[in-house]
Amino acid sequence: MAVDSLPLMATLEISHLSKRFGDVVALDDMTFDVRAGELFGFVGSNGAGKTTTMRVALGVLEPDAGEVRWDGHPLTLETRRQIGYMPEERGLYPRMKVRDQLVYLARLHGMSKSDASTSADRWLDRLGVTARRDDEVQKLSLGNQQRVQLAASLVHDPRILVLDEPFSGLDPVAVDVMSQVMREKAAEGIPVVFSSHQLDLVERLCDRVGIVRSGQMVAVGRVDELRAAGPRRLVVEAPTAGPGWADGLPGVRVLGSGNGRTELELADGADDQAVLRAALGAGPVRRFGDRRPTLTELFRDVVSEGTP
């Protein structure tokens, strides 16, 4: 398939990837997809398999089993040239000038010198580093290096974006700029997959999220779906209730209590009306309602399930 014939509105499929490094299982039947125009958050603990998956998608690593497909076709060298990749570790030439580097990288992806120069200038301006265009990369702050690294992933007009910890080391203004760029690229129909330990950003930005544990995708879906699928939690505000008022209720676990506020986790089938009666028996109740877990709480629950 020629590069210029690649479809814009297509899905990136990670299909049953397995990869071992000696006795270490890095990927174990890793499977998910990133749809056209979707921001997909790829989260997991260190060593869970996120970067290995990205490197397989890029062709840097060969899987032991499985494949990566774009629009239903296995990725080739030509199609991989259409991926914009931002590694977690800095992948830039430290002694090369910023603009020269972007033009060089765009040319490696097949752009003409004129188009590469125009694109480099556009992204330097968009990401707020035009004033540093003639500086060596090593002379930039870590935040500006990160901006240039993002420009390098975008300068060749990719049709897939794969970003490994793109928000690392950024100040709040730069986070907002990078978030907006990612939204804009998704709005163009580009599938965007990124990993991050900043789960508040993932929760805010993503259409869907995949949680990885021990090389496997263990939960995937929209954030609201994942939060709704977690254990039910109740918040009860009973200012005069004494300690232990909820102890012994069947299927109820106290997660925290203090200042008249108690948070409970209910097992399947637990009777919330029994909880309400117990709370009222301890005094007036000002609040009684569900609280869905945050993505951070959900992540901790999912990851801890696989911890011995």
Automatic annotation (TrEMBL):
<keyword id="KW-0547">Nucleotide-binding</keyword>
<dbReference type="GO" id="GO:0005524">
    <property type="term" value="F:ATP binding"/>
</dbReference>
<dbReference type="InterPro" id="IPR027417">
    <property type="entry name" value="P-loop_NTPase"/>
</dbReference>
<dbReference type="Pfam" id="PF00005">
    <property type="entry name" value="ABC_tran"/>
</dbReference>
<feature type="domain" description="ABC transporter">
    <location>
        <begin position="12"/>
        <end position="239"/>
    </location>
</feature>
<dbReference type="Pfam" id="PF13732">
    <property type="entry name" value="DrrA1-3_C"/>
</dbReference>
<dbReference type="InterPro" id="IPR003439">
    <property type="entry name" value="ABC_transporter-like_ATP-bd"/>
</dbReference>
<comment type="similarity">
    <text>Belongs to the ABC transporter superfamily.</text>
</comment>
<dbReference type="GO" id="GO:0016887">
    <property type="term" value="F:ATP hydrolysis activity"/>
</dbReference>
<keyword id="KW-0813">Transport</keyword>
<dbReference type="InterPro" id="IPR025302">
    <property type="entry name" value="DrrA1/2-like_C"/>
</dbReference>
<dbReference type="InterPro" id="IPR017871">
    <property type="entry name" value="ABC_transporter-like_CS"/>
</dbReference>
<protein>
    <submittedName>
        <fullName>ABC transporter ATP-binding protein</fullName>
    </submittedName>
</protein>
<keyword id="KW-0067">ATP-binding</keyword>
<dbReference type="InterPro" id="IPR003593">
    <property type="entry name" value="AAA+_ATPase"/>
</dbReference>
